[in-house]
Design goal:
It is a single chain. By secondary structure, the chain is α/β, with parallel strands linked by helices. It has 8 helices and 9 strands. It has a 6-stranded mixed β-sheet with strand order 2-1-3-6-5-7, with helices on both faces. A 3-stranded mixed β-sheet has the order 4-9-8. α5 packs across α6.
Length: 224
């Protein structure tokens, strides 16, 4: 299976994002995935959150699947292959559930797995360039309905272009998690089902810098 993992960040957040890139590179090397990092701005009127969509459209034609991961998220090296997830959930778009259902649908766009199909490309094209959808789902603002994530949530809630039929949602703590205490607890339980990704969603820059550096240090200690 030909898979590319995509990241986007610019100089503004490079001081922490470079560590996430370093870890994700190790994970991709382990499973022979292509890691593509971009910092080019394609929008002049939208925040950097939206840059994932043009980047996905640029590369999806060359791969069976592309996987988006936010610049404040990294794969644990002990995680299984992405093929395991793809085969288990077996759909064209695979999303992660958010930790809270206070503003349903509880979807988080920090990690996206997308199959190279005509329907997926058409959906991402709408996410990327439809002002109608952007304006519809960003106004009025709903808690956790922010930027590009609001459009994904809105398309799922209203089943735009039969989105739900091509979408699978992985439960929270299966694909990603947000807090260090969660992984510590799961490891104490000696479970074999740990999250693939540590995503520091909504954390401070200090925390976003601290945890990947700690993880890289732990990897160095293991090698020693």
């Amino acid at each position: 299976m030909n898979i590319a993992v995509l990241m986007w960040y610019d100089k503004q957040i490079e001081f922490f994002a470079k560590y996430y890139h370093q870890i994700n590179k190790l994970y991709c090397n382990k499973y022979n995935y292509k890691l593509i990092k971009c910092s080019k701005r394609r929008y002049t009127d939208r925040k950097p959150h939206w840059e994932r969509f043009p980047l996905i459209l640029k590369h999806i034609e060359k791969y069976d699947y592309v996987v988006w991961i936010d610049a404040d998220a990294f794969f644990y090296l002990e995680s299984p292959s992405l093929e395991d997830l793809i085969q288990k959930y077996d759909n064209e778009i695979i999303l992660s559930a958010d930790y809270s259902n206070l503003s349903p649908p509880a979807l988080n766009s920090g990690v996206l797995i997308l199959k190279n199909t005509a329907q997926v490309k058409a959906m991402v094209e709408k996410w990327a360039y439809s002002d109608e959808l952007k304006n519809k789902f960003l106004n009025p603002p709903i808690r956790n309905w922010i930027e590009d994530q609001a459009v994904i949530r809105g398309c799922y809630k209203e089943n735009i272009d039969n989105f739900r039929e091509i979408c699978s949602i992985i439960p929270y703590l299966k694909l990603q998690h947000y807090w260090k205490k969660e992984i510590n607890f799961l490891r104490q339980q000696e479970t074999n089902e740990l999250p693939y990704v540590f995503h520091l969603a909504g954390m401070s820059d200090e925390q976003r810098l601290k945890y990947p550096r700690e993880y890289l240090k732990s990897l160095d200690e293991i090698r020693l």
